């Protein structure tokens, strides 16, 4: 997969993309991530990419002509038809795991990070495939949302993580109905009886078995995989009911 990010603050991306799973994915050449400074497509001598809003008001607005030129240039280097342009915006459709899964099937993503007051509406109307929000709050810029999307998409690209690592997690529709299999075996399969229900992950424990009189649930130490699976499904349901009842249909 190739990911192009358009931003006014390229330096913000140094660090997050050079460690952990994203670094591994880049090293394995499963993803290529390019950060582009929008100012490279500015045409005046001041390299301006934004201007005051027509009709008055505060702040600076990202210009449609600059973004159009940037997109033309990036698109001209890509032949795949599985390529889409996403605008990061608090006004967009709320992002979630399902969306991450769909985006992971594309070959090329262009992410546009806005800043300041926002962007000329013609960018959203004519130049992008989708406007995405990472939640109902306003951030200073689209750089952190772009990082959130890149991280959540790249870990779903086949080969980046073990297959069962992404099946057995919160918001997965698979693992809660999957027959018991030792985790980490790569043998996870979607059960024929699996429902489309999305649950939060079940609680996990590790050593020590007892800490400050807080004990690990006995069943997890029993070695009885059937009982462990029953316990985990029950706990996943309880957690979902408590914290995200909206996920339970
Ligand atoms: N005036 C805009 C509004 O009220 O909707 C907010 C602009 S915000 C300060 C600047 C930029 O940050 C946005 O153009 C967008 O790219 C990004 N941004 C802020 N919050 C976001 C969110 N929740 N999801 C995605 N992008 C966001």
Automatic annotation (TrEMBL):
The EC number(s) this enzyme carries: 2.1.1.228
Binding residues for S-adenosyl-L-methionine, per the UniProt record?
114, 134-139
An example of a GO molecular function for this protein is: tRNA (guanine(37)-N1)-methyltransferase activity
Q: What class of enzyme is it?
A: transferase
Compartments, record wording: Cytoplasm
- Entry superkingdom: Bacteria
Q: Which reaction does it catalyse?
A: guanosine(37) in tRNA + S-adenosyl-L-methionine = N(1)-methylguanosine(37) in tRNA + S-adenosyl-L-homocysteine + H(+)
Against InterPro entries, the record matches this protein to: Alpha/beta_knot_MTases, tRNA_m1G_MeTrfase_C_sf, tRNA_m1G_MeTrfase_TrmD, tRNA_m1G_MTases_N, tRNA_MeTrfase_TRMD/TRM10
Using the UniProt record, give the first listed, main subcellular location: cytoplasm
Name one cellular component (GO) term: cytosol
Q: Where is the tRNA methyltransferase TRMD/TRM10-type domain?
A: 1-180, 187-249
A biological process from GO = tRNA N1-guanine methylation
The alphabetized UniProt keywords are: Cytoplasm, Methyltransferase, S-adenosyl-L-methionine, Transferase, tRNA processing
Which portions of this protein are annotated as coiled-coil regions?
Answer: none
The stretch of residues making up the signal peptide is none
Pfam families on file: tRNA_m1G_MT
- What function does the entry list? Specifically methylates guanosine-37 in various tRNAs.
Q: Which PANTHER family does the record cross-reference, listed alphabetically?
A: TRNA (GUANINE-N(1)-)-METHYLTRANSFERASE (PTHR46417)
Quaternary data: Homodimer.
Q: Which family does it belong to?
A: Belongs to the RNA methyltransferase TrmD family.
Q: What is this protein called?
A: tRNA (guanine-N(1)-)-methyltransferase
Gene that this sequence comes from:
trmD
